[in-house]
């Protein structure tokens, strides 16, 4: 029995070591008021529990993004997600006051989740849907990337050793995926890149499969075309990365 017991102890130790660099999260959940004249609002994202600079950075970034999405009342300088939900409600009620016969219910849904984590990096995906009238709502996803060793949020340019070189590589892969000839303008098949020149999207994130580039609706194509995603395997892009993902 001793060899088996020793093996079990070793296994537990290895698992513990493997997970010791993983952050601990709990769900942060909010809902708007439930009433006949209230918009439907739900917010859910992971809240880091550690008392560290990194945890504070992650939580602050998610709060700020939530506030930015929901802040619809200029008279309220929302500083918390709760105040942002109130701002969204006030925006709806003001519109309903002005156009009582035309206003239909507003809706907001925000859902965040950790989609990638290693010893040095963590990426949170924030998925949102906002409907404030019109023919349809607007769905988008945002990537928030964090340097775990320095406890700070990373801008896109900080992900790469040389962003220009990565952009040239990404354009080749984008053209291959979307079947755009290399000798034709990038908008040859109907895209809407400004100045007919390829550029990286606002949202770039680490995933289990590789670096993902995501163009949200309207960014380079019509709403009907939906979002555009290009995932580049780590083996292909590791030479461009300032911080290495999975190899």
UniProtKB/TrEMBL annotation:
> What Pfam families does the database record attribute to this sequence?
DUF3298 (PF11738), PdaC (PF13739)
Which stretches make up the Deacetylase PdaC domain?
A: 37-138
Which ranges carry the DUF3298 domain? Answer: 164-235
- InterPro entries assigned to the protein according to its UniProt record, in alphabetical order: DUF3298, PdaC, PdaC/RsiV-like_sf
What name has this protein been given in UniProt? DUF3298/DUF4163 domain-containing protein
């Amino acid at each position: 029995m001793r060899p088996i017991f020793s093996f079990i102890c070793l296994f537990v130790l290895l698992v513990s070591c493997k997970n010791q660099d993983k952050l601990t999260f709990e769900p942060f959940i909010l809902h708007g008021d439930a009433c006949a004249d209230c918009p439907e609002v739900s917010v859910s994202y992971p809240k880091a529990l550690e008392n560290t600079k990194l945890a504070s950075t992650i939580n602050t970034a998610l709060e700020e993004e939530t506030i930015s999405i929901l802040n619809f009342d200029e008279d309220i300088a929302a500083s918390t997600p709760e105040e942002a939900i109130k701002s969204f409600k006030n925006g709806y009620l003001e519109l309903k006051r002005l156009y009582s016969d035309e206003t239909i219910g507003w809706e907001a849904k925000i859902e965040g989740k950790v989609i990638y984590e290693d010893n040095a990096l963590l990426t949170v995906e924030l998925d949102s849907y906002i409907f404030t009238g019109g023919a349809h709502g607007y769905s988008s996803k945002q990537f928030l990337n964090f340097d775990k060793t320095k406890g700070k949020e990373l801008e896109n340019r900080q992900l790469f050793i040389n962003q220009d070189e990565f952009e040239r590589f990404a354009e080749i892969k984008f053209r291959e995926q979307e079947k755009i000839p290399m000798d034709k303008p990038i908008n040859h098949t109907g895209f809407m890149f400004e100045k007919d020149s390829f550029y990286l999207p606002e949202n770039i994130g680490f995933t289990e499969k590789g670096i993902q580039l995501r163009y949200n609706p309207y960014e380079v194509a019509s709403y009907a075309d939906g979002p555009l995603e290009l995932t580049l395997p780590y083996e292909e892009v590791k030479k461009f990365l300032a911080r290495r993902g999975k190899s």
